[in-house]
Amino acid sequence: MKGGILMKVIVVGSSHGGYEAVRGIISEAPDTEIQWYEKGDFISFLSCGMQLYLEGVVKNVNDVRYETAGHARSQGVSVFVRQEVTALDPGEHTVTVHNLDDDSTRSEHYDKLVLSVGAVPAPLPVPGADLANVYAMRGRDWAIRLKAKTVDPTVQNVAVIGAGYIGVEAAEVFAKAGKHVTLIDVLPRALQLYLDEEFTDTLTQTMREHGIYPAMGQGVKQFTGTDGQVSGVETDAGTYPADLVIISAGIKPATNWLKGVVDLDTRGLIDVDAHQQTSVPDVYAVGDATLVPFAPTDGMARIALATVARRQGRTAAKNILGQPMTMPAVSGASALSVFDYHFASTGLKEGTADQFGVKTQSIFVTDTVRPQFVPDAAGNAKVAFKLTYDPATKRVLGAQIMSTRDVTANINAISLAVQGKMTLDDLAYADFFFQPGFDRPWNIINVATQAALLGKTTTEAE
């Protein structure tokens, strides 16, 4: 309610941030008039769940979502699919809506507006990018098309451009489907933005063993083709056969239509304040098209994660409802599996500290998940852990962990430590449970911080 009058909120975009903004408003002010717009024909698809669908863990592509249009409508939300918001007039408090089904255009008034416009795959401006069988890996439509290619007998060689999370997921999907996969990236190491070399060396070897050839440190020059269909990828170091190319080389904010209307930075990201409000009144922005407070540096960073977008969406909802809330600083925690290995990382690491202008020091620890008397066959395994901290203040800045056992939840403790500005002394003897069926008497976090306080840089299980 606004002054006793029913408030109208328009939410643009149905992914993580938009979904959370809608849920936040409904849960606390169910009488609010909400219009929810999605230019596609399907709301709330989760691209982060695409690998589970492509590998058959989730059978129905329509299940890879938070919400359905029918359920949202049953709670009073007016859901519009295949309707694209194309313009914003902050002075009039209106948006222009283009109906993609009948090509009509109309104006809609809002009291509050939430922009969850997200990002789109960054195009690769090279010759041959318009050839058939050059795909992306983002969104439901691409998921359906990629699924068909996993069982297409004419596709034997797959080239994946970009070795971040999405690219590695794509590479693993097609390797498991029996295809020969080449993973190409201009950076020297796969997953370089998430893990330091001690971890990526192991994962690179694992990918090789499963039929993925890592062509790292190579820039794509062109896609070659025959009869209009892609047949290869030429880089500055070689040429690789490809019946299918999947581009996952970064994303760009979908904000061109907002230029000159709200303040954008040089990358096209929307400037927002601590309450997720843009440079114009009553307009909020959340998700991959914004920056967020970054706990390790006490500054801002771009972190395109669902967890971040959902916190932004809830923050925007609270402020729209007159409940002042600032967006909490985040550590950027994330996790992934690469064949038998499970890893997670959070905060700063040696490989990313320079871009933030932060001096760091690290301790690298190898141990076993459970006491050494527990055999591997009973669930024991080696674990690697790297803790990064400020050498002057001993403040914890980030960590990485990896094992063939799933120990990724340990990274949540480090995220809290980073956000709470804890130091090595705070963690060295912190209380973590012990039971031989689960872990060691000293948690690996204890082991690492105790070793770091002794001035060590590496340590192995004792």
UniProtKB/TrEMBL annotation:
Coiled coil: none
This protein's record includes keyword rRNA-binding: no
Keywords, alphabetical: FAD, Flavoprotein, Oxidation, Oxidoreductase, Peroxidase, Redox-active center
Pyridine nucleotide-disulphide oxidoreductase dimerisation domain: residues covered: 337-439
Pfam families, sorted: Pyr_redox_2, Pyr_redox_dim
Gene3D superfamilies per UniProt: 3.30.390.30, FAD/NAD(P)-binding domain
Cofactor(s) demanded: FAD
SUPFAM superfamilies in the cross-refs: FAD/NAD(P)-binding domain, FAD/NAD-linked reductases, dimerisation (C-terminal) domain
GO molecular function: peroxidase activity
Domain (FAD/NAD(P)-binding) ranges: 7-313
Recorded family membership: Belongs to the class-III pyridine nucleotide-disulfide oxidoreductase family.
Protein name as catalogued: NADH peroxidase
